[in-house]
């Protein structure tokens, strides 16, 4: 048989196969959809009943994120500044927040955004000045903040800062301080909204100003910290450097009574095992507080403790001295405590956010490479 006939039969066979394929295509129904070759996707719930927190995520390029404390949803990004957020404050009703962010003029502006990331608006364009440390009044109508003139956020001299008020209804602003030469940082409202406390680093004092009567109280405090108010606004806690009998320098914690106008030592000479104290976070049940302090005279490795408001019954929450703890915040019931920690002596360490259950004593990691956590109040 010649090669010609072999090639001819092959051509006939190919034509036959093609024809049978066309016939089957006509007779057999095709599937209406193509098979999904991707792995099945689990639906993500759109809402949760769990209380949520907000925090700065990615400390090298910080933006704000929120997360349900039971971890029933993944973290949700709120701001998209590309890492320009400096600090923030959550509104009393939990529906939105104010944050400070770097601008193109080397200053820091104030912005407002909803918890869903919507309704973004600029509250105050500070141009080359630095506007930080926003603090909502209890009724949510006014925002206190510290204002630093042109010179950059990271200048060492903070004695040029002053406290201003921004009225959110019309975005008008005014200086809180009676004199143009008065200085202050870290504004803190009293829970009743009648008083504003702030730190004056130039005079090494805590100033407490009555917004109605204009009365001013001045208390010696050389730590550059403001105060922590009691829930009834009748007293506040502050810190001051003190030299103990062993000639070592420590930071003591004091209580100032607004009724008697007298101060009382809460932690100091009688707690030799604990060194320097920081301002406490008052529990909403009004029976106690949490605070951080160094142990055994060390200035590093701040640990968390709880105690009654009078300073009695000190109990440790953390004991790992290779970590520094801070940014304490109680939930609305006083049952859980948020805090951040970072490992000391490790240049690659990143802060982590934990929640501690006061009843069970269990501590749970909720966010990594995250800082400055706080609770989002539930909208009523």
Describe this structure in words.
With 380 residues, this protein is mostly beta strands. Helices cover 7% and strands 44% of the residues. It contains 1 helix and 29 strands. It has one helix spanning 3-27; strands spanning 52-57, 63-68, 76-77, 85-90, 96-102, 108-114, 121-124, 130-136, 142-148, 162-167, 172-175, 185-189, 195-200, 205-210, 216-220, 228-229, 235-243, 249-257, 262-267, 274-277, 281-282, 288-295, 303-308, 315-316, 323-330, 336-343, 352-357, 363-368, 370-375. The strands form 7 sheets. Strands 20, 21, 22, 23 and 24 form a 5-stranded antiparallel β-sheet that branches. A 4-stranded antiparallel β-sheet has the order 3-2-1-29, with no helix packed on it. Strands 4-5-6-7 form a 4-stranded antiparallel β-sheet, with no helix packed on it. The longest helix has 25 residues, at 3-27. The radius of gyration is 30 Å and the shape is globular. Residues 1-46 have low confidence and may be disordered.
Itemize the secondary structure elements and their pairings.
Blueprint lengths: L2 H25 L24 E6 L5 E6 L7 E2 L7 E6 L5 E7 L5 E7 L6 E4 L5 E7 L5 E7 L13 E6 L4 E4 L9 E5 L5 E6 L4 E6 L5 E5 L7 E2 L5 E9 L5 E9 L4 E6 L6 E4 L3 E2 L5 E8 L7 E6 L6 E2 L6 E8 L5 E8 L8 E6 L5 E6 L1 E6 L5
Antiparallel strand pairs: 1-2, 1-29, 2-3, 4-5, 5-6, 6-7, 8-9, 9-10, 10-11, 12-13, 13-14, 14-15, 16-17, 17-18, 18-19, 20-22, 21-22, 22-23, 23-24, 25-26, 26-27, 27-28
């Amino acid at each position: 048989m010649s090669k010609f006939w072999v090639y001819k039969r092959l051509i006939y066979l190919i034509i036959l196969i093609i024809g049978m394929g066309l016939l089957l295509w006509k007779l057999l129904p095709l599937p209406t959809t193509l098979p999904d070759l991707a792995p099945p996707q689990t639906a993500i719930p759109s809402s949760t009943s769990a209380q949520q927190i907000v925090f700065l995520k990615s400390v090298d390029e910080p933006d704000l994120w929120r997360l349900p404390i039971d971890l029933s949803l993944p973290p949700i990004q709120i701001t998209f500044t590309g890492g320009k957020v400096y600090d923030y404050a959550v509104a009393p009703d939990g529906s939105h927040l104010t944050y400070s962010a770097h601008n193109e003029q080397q200053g820091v502006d104030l912005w407002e955004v909803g918890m869903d990331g919507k309704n973004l608006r600029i509250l105050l364009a500070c141009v080359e000045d630095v506007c930080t440390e926003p603090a909502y009044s209890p009724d949510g109508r006014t925002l206190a903040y510290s204002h630093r003139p042109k010179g950059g956020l990271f200048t060492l001299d903070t004695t040029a800062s002053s406290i201003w008020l921004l009225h959110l209804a019309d975005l008008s602003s005014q200086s809180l301080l009676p004199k143009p030469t008065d200085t202050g940082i870290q504004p803190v409202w009293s829970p009743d909204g009648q008083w504003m406390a702030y730190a004056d680093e130039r005079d090494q004092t805590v100033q407490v100003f009555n917004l109605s009567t204009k009365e001013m109280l001045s208390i010696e405090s050389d730590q550059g910290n403001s105060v922590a108010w009691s829930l009834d606004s009748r007293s506040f806690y502050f810190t001051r450097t003190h030299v103990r009998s062993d000639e070592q320098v420590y930071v003591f914690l004091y209580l100032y009574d607004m009724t008697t106008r007298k101060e009382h030592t809460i932690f100091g000479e009688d707690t030799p095992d604990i060194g320097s104290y920081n301002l406490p976070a008052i529990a909403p049940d009004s029976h106690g507080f949490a605070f951080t302090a160094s142990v055994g005279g060390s200035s590093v490795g701040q640990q968390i403790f709880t105690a009654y408001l009078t300073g009695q019954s000190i109990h440790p929450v953390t004991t790992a001295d290779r970590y520094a703890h801070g940014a304490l915040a109680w939930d609305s019931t006083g049952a859980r405590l948020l805090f951040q920690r970072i490992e000391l002596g490790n240049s690659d360490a990143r802060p982590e956010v934990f929640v501690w259950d006061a009843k069970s004593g269990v501590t749970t990691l909720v966010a990594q490479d995250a800082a400055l956590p706080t609770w989002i109040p539930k909208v009523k």
